[in-house]
Design a protein that fits this description.
Structural class: alpha/beta
Number of strands: 6
Largest sheet: 6 strands, parallel
Shape: globular
Strand content: 5-15%
Strand order of the largest sheet: 3-2-1-4-5-6
Number of helices: 11
Radius of gyration: 19 Å
Distance between the termini: 11 Å
Length: 245
Amino acid sequence: MAYYNCLLFDVDDTLLDFGAAERAALGEMLEHFQLPADEETIQTYQTINTALWRSLEKGEIKKDKLVHKRFAQFLQAIGKEGDPAALNEYYLSRLGEKAIPCEDAREVLKDLAEVATIAVVSNGVERVQQGRLTASGLAELIDATFVSERMGVTKPNRKFFDSALHILGVNNREKVLVIGDSLRADIQGGSNAGLATCWYNPRGQENASGAKPTFEIAHLRDLLPIVMEQEELDDVGNPAKRHMV
């Protein structure tokens, strides 16, 4: 029996390459509205967007305010006129079409689905995340999707994870593992809920935060020996009866 039989995965930069998707969608949006598309302009948007998402994680701003405010601040920063709501809507529609899986994501989820229930836990925009997971082909390997705007609370608040586990019917928290790239949202959030955590850190970034992951990996395939017992590892890739929580 697997060491962990309920896996809660973040989406952006854990299962799907958000950086590549963001740049592609942003470039299309800037071109459509005839705005500058140089590197400095893109960096300006990303700086504003990152700061606002950090405020969301701290509970300082709501999601509906964030997606409007980021483009209002962006237009002001680059000295251009425009409709922030129109920019946001076009950007989200393009972003929802960009589905670039992280390295080995599909293969690893397929293997893990043999021994565990797999759920997604995300602070992203629900329609965008659902669209990207479906387009990537990963949705068929996921049992449940939990997004903050539907949950009414964001990671790292423990209520997010408590609600997800309640809906999944999971009582044994010792068998749950949270996997994500964000030390604050995923690792600290999982810790807040009393869950084991795995920091996906492919770039080898330094952990200068107070969050302490149970595990740290550089490749998604490194999850297999963390989740599976040796007998299950030996059987990776072979048909097997799925273990349900």
